[in-house]
């Protein structure tokens, strides 16, 4: 929910649109649009966000231990990111908004695999990224 509040509020004022299946690049959201729970390339994203030249796909995960963080980040989000990249290549940016405890090695592995990481407690970074790529 915090991601949606950030997208709708200032300074972004993104427009929430109806969720849709996105099977090809022609179905990407327009810049400044977002939706929740869209099926993208065959697997669901918590948030699909239209940027000026790409689609940002966000999964939101919380973890209460370093052990649990591998499952949440590297397995669950990593598997989706692989599908999205296979389907759309560099036209998508897989991302995670994280809260809680995550092992540093797991974070580094996720970043090496191409997952952008944002923290729920620091939405300023996400907002700056979105504003710069709108």
List the domain count as a whole number. 1
Question: What is the succession of H and E elements?
Answer: HEEEEHEHEH
Determine Rg (CA atoms, Å).
Answer: 14 Å
* Structural class by SSE content: alpha/beta
Give the DSSP E fraction (strand runs of 2 or more residues): 25-35%
Major sheet description? 6 strands, mixed
What share of residues is helical? 25-40%
Q: Which CATH class applies here? A: Alpha Beta
Kindly identify the CATH topology: Trna Endonuclease, Chain: A, domain 1
Shape: globular
The number of helices is: 4
CATH architecture: 3-Layer(aba) Sandwich
Distance between the termini: 21 Å
Mean pLDDT rating: 95
Low-confidence stretches: none
**How many strand units?**
6
Spatial strand sequence of the major β-sheet: 1-2-3-4-5-6
Describe the model.
- The structure is a single chain.
- This protein starts with a helix and ends with a helix.
- Strands 1-2-3-4-5-6 form a six-stranded mixed beta sheet, with helices on both faces.
- The chain has four helices and six strands.
- The chain is globular and about 40 Å long.
- The chain has about 130 residues and is an alpha/beta fold.
- Helix 2 (about 65-90) runs parallel beside helix 3 (about 105-110).
- It has helices at about 1-10, 65-90, 105-110, 125-134; strands at about 15, 35-40, 45-50, 55-65, 90-100, 115-120.
Secondary-structure blueprint:
Layout: H1 2-8, E1 15-16, E2 33-40, E3 43-50, E4 55-63, H2 66-88, E5 92-100, H3 104-112, E6 116-119, H4 123-133
Parallel strand pairs: 1-2, 4-5, 5-6
Antiparallel strand pairs: 2-3, 3-4
């Amino acid at each position: 929910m915090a991601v949606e509040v950030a997208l709708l509020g200032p300074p972004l004022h993104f427009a929430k649109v109806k969720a849709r299946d996105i099977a090809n690049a022609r179905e990407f959201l327009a810049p400044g649009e977002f939706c929740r729970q869209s099926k993208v390339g065959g697997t669901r994203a918590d948030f699909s966000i239209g940027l000026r030249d790409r689609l940002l796909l966000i999964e939101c995960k919380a973890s209460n231990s370093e052990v649990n963080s591998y499952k949440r980040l590297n397995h669950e989000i990593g598997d989706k990111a692989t599908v999205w990249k296979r389907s759309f290549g560099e036209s998508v940016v897989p991302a995670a908004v994280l809260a809680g405890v995550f092992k540093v090695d797991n974070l580094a592995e996720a970043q090496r695999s191409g997952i952008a990481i944002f923290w729920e407690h620091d939405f300023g970074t996400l907002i700056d990224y979105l504003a710069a790529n709108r």
